[in-house]
Design brief:
By secondary structure, the protein is mainly beta. The protein is built from no helices and 10 strands. A 6-stranded antiparallel β-sheet has the order 6-3-2-1-7-8, with no helix packed on it. The relative contact order is 0.19.
Length: 112
Amino acid sequence: MAAKIKKGDKVVVLSGKDKGKQGVVSSVLVEDQKVLVSGVNVVSRHTKPSQADQGGIKNFEAPIDSSNVAHIDPEDGKPTRIGFKTDDNGRKIRFSKRSGVEIDEPVWSKKK
């Protein structure tokens, strides 16, 4: 099944302590159905010193369930659901159900 949320997508958090915050997906944990969003769900961990690390309180982003985030519509910036359709060449592309705007860029239009 194709992924509705991919790395680099701009999303908004729908529930939890960071409800309403926006960020960019930095990685997707496919098997756990979770995503890491930059600047969202930051947690602290107390670590013991070791030879490699000084230790102390470390802050990092914890994964969020993918059902608790929604794509941001490119047209108006509000949360939207994602749909799939095929283009003229038979490729599957994602689109915003709110405005109908295609989210994926065609492969040939990406600049290297």
